[in-house]
Every structure is written in C-alpha cells, then in structure tokens.
Amino acid sequence: MAIEVVPLPLPPSADASKFADFGREVKGVKPGELTPEELEEIKELLYKHDALLFRDVDFTPEQQYALTKAFDPSSENYGHGNNKTGETKKSILHPDLKTIPRVPQVQLIGNGTVYNHEGLAEAKLKHPHHKTFHKTAISDEDEEKGATRFYRWHIDAALYDLNPPKVTTLYGLNVPQGTKQVCRYDDGTGDELTVPLGTTAFVSGKTTFDILPPELKSLAVRSKVKYAPHPYVWMAPAHAKSTGLGIETEGLEEALSELPPWEESRLKVLPILWKNPVTGNLHFQVHPCGVMELLVDPLPEGANKEGALYPEGTHITNLGEVRDILYKMQRPAIAPPLVYPHDWHERDLVLFHNRGVLHTVVGAFKPDQVRAFHQCNLAASDEPVGPSPEDVKKWA
After folding, report:
1. What pLDDT sits at residue 81?
2. Fewest C-beta atoms under 10 Å: which of 130, 206, 305, 388?
3. Domains of the chain, with CATH numbers?
4. What predicted TM-score, i.e. pTM, was given to this entire model?
5. At residue 78, what are phi and psi to the nearest 5 degrees?
C-alpha cells in the first residue's frame, strides 16, 4: 500500500488559508517498520509540512529512538543532554521528564502515577501547569469552569552546548478524555482559543515570518539571538507572560555567577530565521524564554534605509528591550486563527519539525487523570542554517 497523506483536521478557529501546507496525517505505513524508501518519503513530507500524524500506532521506545535518529544519523544524545536537566534539580525541566532506562533518549512525560512502565517500577508524572511559571494565574474558580493557558511556547533544545534537534517524536499511550478547555491569553486582547483537554499546540515558524511587516522581516533576516548559559536554570526563578510567550522582565533570573559551570565558547548564538532543508523557506525559530541578547547586522550595501530598524546594525544587551522586540515579532503568530491544537488520541504518533515550529503544552489535569506519553528528540549534529546572502538581500 502506497503512502497516503491527508490534511490534518483543523478546528473551527483555524484560518485554513494559513494551514494549506501545514500538517498531514500519514496513512498506509507503519512508522516503526519503514523501508528505506518510505523513510526518505517521510523525511521529505515532514520538512514540507512540519508536522505528521500517524494514528493507531504500535511503537516501542526502540522504534521511536530509531525513527528520530533516522533524521540525523550522527545524533545520539537526548536533546537536552542525557541527564536532561543540566546536572541540577534547579532546572525548570526537572519535574517534567522521566527517562526510559533501556532507551535513555526516550522520555516519559505526562500526569499522575504510572506503574511498571518500560522498566520503571513507579513514575510520578506532573503535567506542567501555568501557575508554577506565569507571573499571573487563572483563579481556581475559573479553572474549575475550564479556563486554561498556554504553558510555555518553545523549541525543544538545550540552547547551551548542544545543537537544537531536527525532529521531535511524541507518542500518546494514555490520553485522558475530558471536556474542552478555553485557553485564555489574558494580555488585554481578549483572545481566547477553545482547545481539547491536554492539547499540544503548534504554530508555524514559516507563518511567523511570512506575516511580519517589511521592517520586521528586515530585522529578522539580519538578526541572531544569544541564549543564556544553562537557560532552564537561568529562567527558573523568573515568571512567564500570560501568553506563555517569553518572560516578564523583573530581574529574577538566576545570576550568571550562580549557574552551574559554563563556558563562553559553549553559548549558543543562533540566527532568528532557520532555513528549511527541503523547501528553502525561512522559519522564525526563537525560544523567547531563553534569549539574553540580540545581535543585528547592518543593512546590506544598496538597501533602502527608509523605515528600516537599526540600519547600521546593533547589539542589544538590555534584557527588557530584547524581550519587547521579540514579543512584537512573535505574538502575531500565536493568534487563535494561526494555532493548531492537536486533539490527542491513544496511540497517536506525531512527528514535528523542531526547527520549523514552536509548540507548547496546554491545559491542566487533576491528579487522578493519568496521562503517559513517550517523547524523543536528539541534539543535532549541526547548527541550524540561517538566511543566505540572497535571502538577506531579498528581505532586508
């Protein structure tokens, strides 16, 4: 049976015109048993569509690791390092992940207590909740009525020392069903999004770039971001914005001198725009919570300076200013019509292009709602490729 692809089912909130190329359900193959030819086709489909869904999949941790690794055969370590949390319990990731003992690149995530699972006698899982991370919180009363928030928009990446993974695989084993929730942005816009319980929400980095006005496209194509050392430890004491898109600037970040040992040479300075290896499209790929500085190149020779931002280039180290600029660029892309909230079913496998989308956990579970997922991504063997000189000339 040949590989068949069909568009993902979009919610009524989605602007279908913005999802023409985003996301496909794949039928006719078993993702754990792909032939070399099928694997090449799946790779191309992923880079073209950024997210692939396989339904009713039987999938072992070994198969998940093998499929993830197939996108980058030289990769080996889990994307955040095989100790997951930068050798410290102070990392904001620490409560969220449990390692499958025999396949340490695959993590168990979810909610509630899971017993006798893939070599783990007992695993206590905690679904990330916005109350532990956001500056403001939804009231208990409103939460009981079904109100919720995006937790943290991000790319799966250590953002220090290791390169951002190319692909993430997510496999749903136990998926609690429940009434839909209303995701509130609580940023003064009135924006809300009806979402399935415990959805994973995605936005396209390509769309994020495409919808920018010309002056911000010019800024994006000329800019790099510098991430903090051990960013998940650095950001842990701070509070996120109500949209989950970045951090409020309150001076609460861990002092650089108090972080685990770090080296300047291992800091990550990455372009804002990452080039798709198949389509050549530019994807706006910034993890806003971990960014410390913004570096902007000058306009190329002969470019029109009228209306341009920082035409001579600049290096912005003021954290509040850096965050304000990035928020202005990324916030339009998480508007309700541009978000794909996946409605999980048991034995769903989702592959997503981690260098092409931003995603976030959403929602809240009660302690007795057991949810178990396997997640795998691998620190890449190379850094993302930024805009070419031709791209800079075109968009700057």
Report:
1. 67
2. 305
3. 4-204+343-377 (3.60.130), 207-332+386-395 (no CATH)
4. 0.95
5. -55, 145
